[in-house]
Amino acid sequence: MTRRVLMCEPLHYRIDYEINPWMRRSNRVDGARALAQWRRLRESLEELGVSVELVEQAPGAPDMTFTANAGVVAGGRFLPSNFRFPERRPEEDHFIRWFRHAGYAVETIHLPHYWEGEGDVLPAGDRVFAGHRYRTEFRALDHLEEALGTELVRLELADPRFYHLDTCFAPLGGGRALYAPAAFTTEGRAELASHFDDLIAVEPAESLRFACNALVVDRRVVMNAGCPATARALRERGYEPVESATDEFIKAGGSVKCLALMLDAFVPEGAGAP
């Protein structure tokens, strides 16, 4: 599904604050282990033919390694996030500078409406799905629809542990998707069921290992290690799970998909990226 991503080496990754149920300052990050896990993930993506661009992490932005939250890339445009929590707002300028230097036009979503990029906005075929409640404001999605030129399928999240859509939903292509049922309202589950022929419910224990926080590359699904039931369900459907351990990043509430911003997911037909 993607061939180009933006990643950020976690040289300054740590837990300095608590802005989601996973983050506890007492649960210290093992920096060397986190760096090794990140580097193995990057290697896995490159082995699958994915081109990895890099943005340098700012010392004062410990969560900047979760690049998927930076915004959305649509062809030659970058739409930066308006982070809900002030702790993450220092990241915004760093990402904007990187994209401008790379030749992208930067188009902002109106303040004060907060939204958090690809963490809550994911394409699936000819539709775009958007989660809202915890980190993305419903009203912000009106402006995003204007910017992307398409109507969004809006899904209200129902469990603060799954505070971003990409923690509980992964479109696989071909009318299939992984999802964590408990993360959505009754209406949200019904909406998803109406759009997918094969909606694969991830069991609770593996949803809490962020099995849905996966990156799809053709028929390969790069996902956190230790989710055997989900891996088996994928194999039964002809997908190849590619496991990559991300335990150190789950401490902050992120996994594989959080660590990669897709640079080619929202490219309009006939439009190119810089």
Could you characterize the architecture of this molecule?
The structure is a single chain. The protein is of the alpha/beta class and 274 residues long. It has helices at residues 31-47, 90-101, 138-148, 186-195, 204-207, 228-236, 247-250, and strands at 4-7, 51-54, 71-74, 77-80, 105-106, 121-124, 127-132, 152-156, 169-173, 176-179, 198-201, 215-217, 220-223, 240-243, 261-262. It has a three-stranded mixed sheet with strand order 2-1-15, with helices on one face. It has a three-stranded mixed sheet with strand order 3-4-5, with helices on one face. It has a three-stranded mixed sheet with strand order 6-7-8, sandwiched between helices. The longest helix has 17 residues, at 31-47. The model has no long low-confidence stretch (mean pLDDT 96).
